[in-house]
Write a structure and sequence with these properties.
270 residues, alpha/beta, 12 helices, 14 strands
Length: 270
């Protein structure tokens, strides 16, 4: 088996438009594990927001890894051992929050089980809370209230506005990793953090290389792991830049079991 690690984005890839995982995806992944592959759930979501997907896949029994915050944290799901973690400094969080306020853009930081923001009523803050099934804590000063370590900040707003905000934040913070996971979500992480970087750490720990990696994704933040993998698979619903970088563009969307069909084709050789 060439592809020993199956790296999966969740939203827009493994999950359908209703944020559900199909039985075909569950069964196909379980078969791939029985034949020697390992699962890595790689998402911009916080760890808490990925764990329900891991439970749905039965990863407590079949094993696997969670690479959360776009790879800023890696855990072995069964043992809960933290294999890698990188966080923003208090000074970086304060500077990001200050700039977000100047640009009039809602910002979010993450504790283990809650989202912190000054804009709890924002539709995009509520969307992030719903996706991750996490409560929202509204505070008056986000930087001062973030007394915990946070691997990322998330800026949220209308897509048209975030295009401009992304450019401004990249200019203001050239030493941080900044990119969109969705048109309305702008991820800000420590320097060098992206999905490819964290998968490289996991592969090295396993004694494997990128040629042993199959990655499936759809969004802007999946681009690095699609380019890095020995087999990068873009969903039919993927952003055009992701499709252009992929080794294979599935004719199927995330609503049509594209992940399962890609695994059948490249891992199970059906």
């Amino acid at each position: 088996m060439q592809y020993k690690i199956i790296a999966l984005d969740i939203d827009g890839t493994l999950a359908n438009s209703q944020k559900e995982i199909s039985q075909k995806n569950i069964d196909t992944l379980a078969e791939a594990v029985r034949q020697g592959a390992q699962i890595a759930l790689v998402s911009g979501r916080p760890t808490f927001g990925i764990e329900p997907t891991a439970k749905t896949l039965g990863m407590d029994k079949i094993g696997g890894y969670i690479l959360s915050f776009n790879g800023a944290k890696i855990i072995n799901y069964v043992t809960q051992e933290v294999l890698y973690q990188n966080v923003l400094s208090a000074q970086e969080v304060a500077a990001i929050c200050e700039q977000a306020a100047l640009l009039d853009v809602p910002a979010i930081t993450y504790s283990n089980e809650a989202l912190y923001t000054t804009s709890a009523q924002s539709i995009y803050v509520q969307k992030e809370a719903t996706i991750n099934k996490m409560p929202v804590v509204e505070v008056s000063n986000l930087a001062q209230s973030t007394t915990f370590q946070t691997p990322k900040c998330l800026l949220v707003d209308d897509p048209e506005k975030l295009v401009k905000v992304e450019a401004l934040m990249k200019e203001k913070f050239p030493n941080l990793s900044i990119y969109r996971s969705e048109p309305y979500f702008l991820e800000i992480m420590p320097q060098g953090i992206d999905k490819a970087f964290s998968l490289g750490i996991l592969l090295e720990q396993q004694g494997l290389t990128a040629q042993n990696l199959l990655s499936c994704g759809d969004g802007f933040n999946d681009l690095s792991m699609i380019q890095y993998a020995g087999m990068g698979v873009a969903m039919q619903n993927a952003q055009e830049v992701v499709k252009a970088a992929a080794n294979y563009v599935s004719p199927y969307t995330n609503d049509e079991d594209a992940v399962a069909l890609a695994i059948e084709k490249f891992v199970l050789n059906r």
